[in-house]
Amino acid sequence: xxxxxxxxxxxISVPEPMLEELNIHTVPYYIHRGSEVxxxxxxxxxxxxxxxxxxxxxxxxxxxxxxxDYIQMYQALSDTGAQEIISIHMTSKGSGAYQxxxxxxxxxxxxxxxxxxxxxxxxxxxxxxxxxxxxxxRAALENQPFNEIINRVRQMIPVTHMLQTxxxxxxxxxxxxxxxxxxxxxxxxxxxxxxGMDNGIIVALGTARSRRQAYQMMVEMVGxxxxxxxxxxxxxxxxxxxxxxxxxxxxxxxxxxxESIFAELSPALGVHTGPGTAGVCYFPVF
Length: 286
Description:
globular, 13 strands, six-stranded mixed sheet, four-stranded parallel sheet, Hypothetical Protein Tm841, Chain: A,domain 3, about 25% strand
């Protein structure tokens, strides 16, 4: 156990081998499917969920972990020797995880007054959120100081970006998570929308007539923003590894990429995007 423990949740979409290698601790989201209460990536796996989702007449409801879930995690880490915890969460404008973790921190302060906990709102989702967790975990394994790791994550927040597209915005729309991209819904049959995040809210960034064109537009967008800077990229998808591979080929032919991984959305995120989603989460190396 490192002095600084890194906590997040199941929506980071970091591949399981990396979670283990980097000693990242995750708390699962809840998925309410009819009368069933599932735990994200614990009692429901990606393959099973994405095979079922297209047949759903009504989308499952997702819920963030509650304060009690985080208290349990913080206490367990304290019991195994952690003295400081950095708890990193998806945008507070789309989930209650950040607020739940903040409440848990206040409660734990009374139970375990000697442990330090910092709770961070990434204002992002998926592997953008995940990259911040990964970089924090790497720094913790290098025994970097608590405040330096926190500063590293906060520096990443404004420069870590998501671009993704799908065959339909149906799932985002049905789940109420479409944010400022709502105006695209009426044109679903004719376009491939490109969406991203702006200050923690999903926004429309462009439209294309085909997936290939959407991927090419993504490359152009990133190229204009980062120029010749080195970047780290996660090729993110929901039951669409082949599409993610196409994105990878285009990106790596054009941009200076020093690290890349494939990452599949967890069910708690995939319920809002639907199967077939593909895109990137990236940040410049600094």
